[in-house]
Amino acid sequence: LISSATKSLRMEMEMLEKKLQEAQMRLAEKDGDKEKEIQSLKRLISELEFQLTMEKSNNESFLDKLRKEIKHKSDELEKLSQEKTQLIHSLSQVQEENSLLQDTVRRECEERFELTAALGRAREQVLELRRLSGTLP
Question: What start-end ranges are recorded for coiled-coil regions in this protein (predicted)?
């Protein structure tokens, strides 16, 4: 009876040891799978961090280009504004000079008209004098 019980317990112990070994193997397998998954996730994190760094770098580069372009356009705008101001000033001077010249031409035309009228009167007087002197003995 003892021998049979011992044998039965040994068999049960062997079965339990097999089950324990199988459970340990499954656990080791699961640990291996988890370790692989952890390594895979670490690689993915590294890749994503690298991509993020590249994106940041590209964005900073793009922003620098935009800032330079904005600065350039701003400088161009300032230059064009100064040119516009100078042109408006020049136009104002030219308009003032034009007005002065028109006034001068108007006065000279009036003087010419007056001189022409005076010359016409003088001619008439000369003709009148010649006619009168021609009738005198």
Answer: 6-33, 63-97
